[in-house]
Each structure stands twice: as C-alpha cells, then as structure tokens.
Amino acid sequence: MILKYPKKFYNFVINLIYPRYCKSCSILLKQDNIFCNTCFLKIQPVAPIDLQLNKSKKTIVFAACNYKDPVKKLITEKLYAKNTLACKQLANIIYQNTIIKNLEIDYLIPVPLHWTRFAKRGYNQSYEIAKHLSVLLNVPVLDILKRNKKTAYQSSLKLEDRVLNVKDIFSIKNKNINLKNKNIYIVDDLFTTGATIKNCAKVLYQLKPESVNAIVACRVIQ
Ligand SMILES: [Zn+2]
C-alpha cells in the first residue's frame, strides 16, 4: 500500500531525519536548498562571451557565474548524485544571474553524456539543468545531440589536449528535425576552454537554425 502524505508534511519529516545545511556556510536550512539566501546572493554574475566558430558564425555563451566557491563546490563534489537538487539550484542561479529570461529561446539542447557514463551515473547533469530551466522559461528541451565516443574528463586534461579531446565527438540523433528560423541554446554545467560548446554548436548549425547560443552554470575565468 502506498500512503500519500501531503508534500509539506513529507518535507518536514525528511528535514527532521536528514537536516539540510548550507553547503557554503553550514547554517541550517529551512528550505530544500543547497545554499542559504546570503550565500546564494554572494554568487557573482559574469559577462557573456562570444565564441567565433568560423568567419560568419558565432555562439554567445551566457554564464551564471565564475567557477569559484560556493558553486565550484557544487560541481566538484558531484552533489548532483542521487538527487538532482544541485541541478535545480544551478538552474535557479542561471535564471537569476543571466539575461536569459529576456531572450527569444525556442529550444534548450543539453550537452549529452556518453551512454556508459550515463549508465554509471544514472543522470546527465546538463539534461537535468535544462529540464529545470525549461520549467522556469517555459521552453521545451530538445535532446537531439549524441556523444559518439567516451572522452576523458575535460578537467583532467591539459589545455591543448582538451581541444583535441572533444573534436568530432558529437552528432545529431534526428536529422529530420526542422530548426529553420529557430533560436536554440546549448545547456551545460561547466565551461572551461569552450571546446565542447564549440563542437556542439558546429554540429547544430548543420540543421540551419537561425542561431546557436549557449547557457552554462559556471565559466572558468583564467
Ligand atoms: Zn550559507
């Protein structure tokens, strides 16, 4: 028999058993969050940047913040594990710290994981972030990119190797999809050299959309 408790009561009981603390300052949290409001407001926004793909095409990258604590902690500690609360909070940070709510967005396209990595982890953090953004922005998620080969984690490689690591590894699952006149946005958690976003954007431009831009939670600023 499945008992259905009201969600508020359920959360109350969960908080009694597993109290939540702010991952940055360790204060006890009343709400189902990763950071308290004070720490959340300390997260500094960063300016959008242009990634030039070729002479005529470019991709603008909207990032919510620099790759620094407390958000860095969220990503490095893989707090997404088991529940996707961290992804939800990253989506909230993106929504609050960028101008994406004022943009014309037709589709959100998550950066895919290789299937073996997906099987091991059980979720794709980019897809989870895109799903939460989809609710906030009322824009559909279009999961059309495929990762053809398993690559080493970008963060474990030297700068020049990162560019080679992601070359030609993405393809389109469904080439019949019509993206003409559409403004599409790639979604990822972390932007390091831009090699991943660049390669995804080049592949997506083959479908002749109006524009391909990107939304990321953190951007590494050297
Ligand atoms: Zn805090």
Shape: globular
- Rg: 18 Å
* CATH architecture descriptor text of the largest domain: 3-Layer(aba) Sandwich
Distance between the termini: 55 Å
Which residues form runs of ≥5 with pLDDT under 50?
none
Question: DSSP helix count?
Answer: 8
**Helicity level, as a percent range?**
25-40%
Structural class: alpha/beta
Beta-sheet strand percentage? 15-25%
The strand order across the widest sheet is: 1-2-7-6-3
- What's the overall average pLDDT, rounded? 85
H/E element string? HHEEHHEHHEHEEHE
Number of domains: 2
Main attributes of the structure:
single chain; 222 residues; alpha/beta; Rossmann fold; 2 domains; five-stranded mixed beta sheet; two-stranded antiparallel sheet; 7 strands; globular; binds zinc ion
Please characterize this protein's 3D structure:
The chain is built from eight helices and seven strands, in the order H-H-E-E-H-H-E-H-H-E-H-E-E-H-E. With 222 residues, the protein is an alpha/beta fold. The protein folds into two domains: 1-41, no CATH class; 43-219, Rossmann fold (3-Layer(aba) Sandwich), CATH 3.40.50. A five-stranded mixed β-sheet has the order 1-2-7-6-3, sandwiched between helices. Strands 4-5 form a two-stranded antiparallel ribbon. The N and C termini lie far apart (55 Å). The model has no long low-confidence stretch (mean pLDDT 85). It binds zinc ion (ZN).
Task: Summarize the topology.
Blueprint: H1 7-17, H2 37-42, E1 49-52, E2 58-66, H3 71-76, H4 85-97, E3 107-110, H5 115-121, H6 125-137, E4 145-147, H7 159-165, E5 170-172, E6 183-191, H8 195-205, E7 211-219
Parallel strand pairs: 2-7, 3-6, 6-7
Antiparallel strand pairs: 1-2, 4-5
